[in-house]
C-alpha cells in the first residue's frame, strides 16, 4: 500500500465517523420534536457505510495490480436512512400536537441507544486517528533511516 493510500484509508474513516457523530447528535437534539416540516414526529436517522472500491475489471491479476499501485480503499457513507418504526404514545392532552384522545406521538429516538452509538463512533474515530498517526510516525522513521 502506498504512503498516501494508507493515509487516505484512515482519512475516509475519519470523515465517515464524523458524519455518523453528526447524525447521532441530530437524533439526540430532536429526541422530543413532535412536529417536523414533513408532518408528524421526528424520525431517527442512521448512517449506512460502504467500502470504497475502484475496480472496473474483476480479473484477479488486474485487481492485484491496481491494489499494489493505488491502494484507494476505505469507507464512505452510502446513504442516510430514516428509521420507520413507530414512536411511543404519551398521554398529554394539553400538548398542541395531541390527537383527539389526548395522546402525542413521540419520536422513535432512544437516548440511551444514541449514547451507545456515540461512544462507538467516537472510539472508531479515535482508532482512525491512532492509525493515521502511527503510519505518519512509521514513514517519518523510514525517512530518517535514509539519512
TrEMBL record:
Similarity field: Belongs to the flagella basal body rod proteins family.
Any one of the GO BP annotations: bacterial-type flagellum-dependent swarming motility
A Pfam family matched in the record: Flg_bbr_C
Alphabetized NCBIfam families for the sequence: FlgC
Assembly and binders: The basal body constitutes a major portion of the flagellar organelle and consists of four rings (L,P,S, and M) mounted on a central rod. The rod consists of about 26 subunits of FlgG in the distal portion, and FlgB, FlgC and FlgF are thought to build up the proximal portion of the rod with about 6 subunits each.
CC per GO annotation: bacterial-type flagellum basal body, rod
Main location: other
Ranges of residues in domain Flagellar basal-body/hook protein C-terminal: 101-144
InterPro entries per the UniProt record, alphabetical: Flag_bb_rod_N, Flg_bb/hook_C_dom, FlgC
Residue stretches making up the Flagellar basal body rod protein N-terminal domain: 7-34
Parts of the chain that traverse the membrane: none
This protein's name: Flagellar basal-body rod protein FlgC
Subcellular location: Bacterial flagellum basal body
Keywords linked to the UniProt accession: Bacterial flagellum, Cell projection, Cilium, Flagellum
Source organism of the structure: Candidatus Cellulosilyticum pullistercoris
Amino acid at each position: 500500500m502506498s504512503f498516501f493510500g494508507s493515509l487516505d484509508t484512515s482519512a475516509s474513516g475519519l470523515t465517515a465517523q464524523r458524519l455518523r457523530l453528526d447524525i447521532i447528535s441530530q437524533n439526540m437534539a430532536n429526541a422530543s420534536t413532535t412536529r417536523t416540516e414533513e408532518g408528524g414526529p421526528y424520525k431517527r436517522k442512521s448512517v449506512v457505510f460502504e467500502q470504497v472500491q475502484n475496480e472496473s475489471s474483476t480479473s484477479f491479476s488486474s485487481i492485484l495490480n491496481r491494489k499494489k499501485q493505488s491502494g484507494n480503499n476505505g469507507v464512505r457513507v452510502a446513504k442516510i436512512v430514516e428509521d420507520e418504526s413507530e414512536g411511543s404514545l404519551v398521554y398529554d392532552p394539553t400538548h398542541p400536537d395531541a390527537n383527539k384522545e389526548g395522546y402525542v406521538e413521540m419520536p422513535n429516538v432512544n437516548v440511551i441507544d444514541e449514547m451507545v452509538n456515540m461512544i462507538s463512533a467516537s472510539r472508531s474515530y479515535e482508532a482512525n486517528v491512532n492509525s493515521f498517526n502511527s503510519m505518519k510516525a512509521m514513514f517519518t522513521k523510514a525517512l530518517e533511516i535514509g539519512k
